[in-house]
Structures
1.
Amino acid sequence: MSDRLISTRDPERIEYGYSDALLQGLAPDGGLYVPGAYPTVDEESLRAMSGLDYVDLFTRIKSLYVDDIPSETQAQLASAAYSKEKFPVPDGNIVPLTQVDRNFFIQNLSLGPTAAFKDMALQPLGQDMNHALSEREQSLMLLGATSGDTGSAAEAAIKGLGRAGLVMLSPENGMSDFQSAQMSELTGGNILNLSVRGNFDACQALVKAIKSDAEFADLGAVNSINWGRIASQIPYYFSGYLHAVDGLIGRPVDFVVPTGNFGNILAGYIAREMGLPIRRLIVATNENSVLNNLIQDGKYQKTPAQITTSPSMDISEASNYERLLFDIFEGDALKVRDYMQMFKNTGTVRFEDFDLPYYTLREMGFDSGVSHAATRLESIRWVHAKRGIVIDPHTADAVTVASRKADEDVPIVCMSTALPVKFESTIESALGFVPEREDPRFIGIEEREQGGFVVVDDDIDEVKEKIRSFRSDSL
Ligand SMILES: *Cc1c(COP(=O)(O)O)cnc(C)c1O
């Protein structure tokens, strides 16, 4: 069955349902949930999708991966996740394509409540979780740590849900005013923001330590490895494809994805496995080029992350890559375990260590490129000069790599993963001005909202006490 899930580290291939995977996050053996097989979509069904609005398209694709929620309910959950209030677009297409040049497109995935593409996955995740919890007559308190974007997107997704709550730890210093304003605005009800006197590492260490305590073992996680997030990202590749080929179904298209944890591009890979005619899946990295080395040289090497001006891609390893690895090893969970163990122990693994050629990923249709501080600014200027639109620094990394890889005859689509309003100082460096904010959600937000945080010491007992009393009050 294609809609049952298995763990990347389980040689027995025990099957799980969608809602189990959703509520658990990580599989019991430490692996990641993946579909036992990919469902396929033929050309005729693809053609039939051309006219659908996004919520319908989304439901049609995603339901192929959901075995335990009736399809009518799925449609309702999708409508709630992608409502007009959350995605205020004029024509219902919440993932629209803009043409920048001949055969060169940008697909905007950042029109949701927090102006980053994390909303595309987290909004449905929140709805699905709440549904699964009510079916089971359970409630769930989530605990997470953030250094920026994930915090507000997760909070916007959980805010107001009856069955779930969220405690988010963030470093007292280190987030931008915009980010802390976004989180402040979401404080209250089932959301608690704790501002820790310490850095992001301290926040992560607290989360880990608290969860290992039996009293808090039932706290859920918000992180990028939940299968529900990937399942909700596959459909926008179908939408992007259909708009890019403009009726010429079957024509190949390239996608360029600004990549961090490999979640977004993995969804593109799965779309292609399902039969979507994607030619190349191109990873764009910033100065943290771990994935470029992996794709070009077959070497996966953990590297300390450096801070850049496209901060949501500042990674030292890419957790969702394990899902692709499972396919590279043709479903051999023991090889996945060995590979990940070698990576954990030594910090470096090569495909050659597993008798695979170093160009394995390129053979599978992946490609990659690196963008730097200077090319990031150039790409912001180029798109602005060309079309009068302002892109954010992450999108600019995709544009940089796309301009190197573009080939005249095949449409290329760059994924746009945040709005420039979140990164105004970089926009100012590139263009010499900051565009006027038009979206009422973000006008004056820094002045409007601050102070939604409870400040705590980097002290586990203090944080536990805060969680304890919040939990008894709110769920
Ligand atoms: C999270 C994020 C990314 C990276 O996406 P992955 O799915 O982790 O590869 C890129 N851009 C922005 C703005 C993000 O928030």
2.
Amino acid sequence: MGFNSRCWCIVISILTIITAVIVVCVYFTNPSDPAFTINEFYVSALNLSDISSTTTTTNQTMFFDMKLHNQNKAMGAYYDPVKIIFSYIPNIKLTFVVAEYTVPKFYQRNQKSKHVIATVTSRGIAPYNRTVTSSVFKVEVLTKVGFTTPANRKKRRVSVVANVRVGQTGERDSKKGIRLFESGVGDGFGGLSIKILMLILSTTTILIIT
Ligand SMILES: *[C@@H]1O[C@H](CO)[C@@H](O)[C@H](O)[C@H]1NC(C)=O
Ligand SMILES: *[C@@H]1O[C@H](CO)[C@@H](O)[C@H](O)[C@H]1NC(C)=O
Ligand SMILES: *[C@@H]1O[C@H](CO)[C@@H](O)[C@H](O)[C@H]1NC(C)=O
């Protein structure tokens, strides 16, 4: 009888500790930054067969489709205004901003996607640039994102970038979506993940001792 109740006691305390660890993990878990993907990209001025662009005034229309995706399973995301900056890189030495677009701030539920499909007017893309077989554009996204869990409510900076190659049709030359990747150093959650590690470590230590 005495042995049995002691046994149960240990089982229950182990289960309690495991539950506590799970709760702590869920509460403090690192949210993933939203994923930004370029699905469509078209520059009229670089379309070799677009007659309207060979005349004196170049057609400076640019079209894009960008997917903004909240990857988190259990957290909604609050976006600050999302700034999208398009730069043209005609050669290694030269990069200039040709267009900008801002998505107003919005809320996105867990694992939801938003497509930003828009036409922007670019500046400074010359028709003679079309003679090159492929041109490179830099697409940058700057915003701040916070999440619905109390520990991650504070918005943090998100800065991602990708290069998009455009062929002589004016369209991007890859079929697959282009995922933007992190650039530079943000004020990420590196410190917090160490804290979680310490928490789990100390909990397991307690588990072993008791
Ligand atoms: C390029 O321009 C031609 C002529 O205006 C047009 O028919 C074609 O659809 C354009 N290409 C793309 C990818 O839109
Ligand atoms: C410029 O190109 C866009 C997209 O191809 C087209 O819709 C528009 O009519 C063109 N503008 C002119 C002035 O040709
Ligand atoms: C493309 O255009 C820019 C400015 O319009 C120019 O400085 C650059 O030299 C051009 N590049 C090529 C390869 O023609």
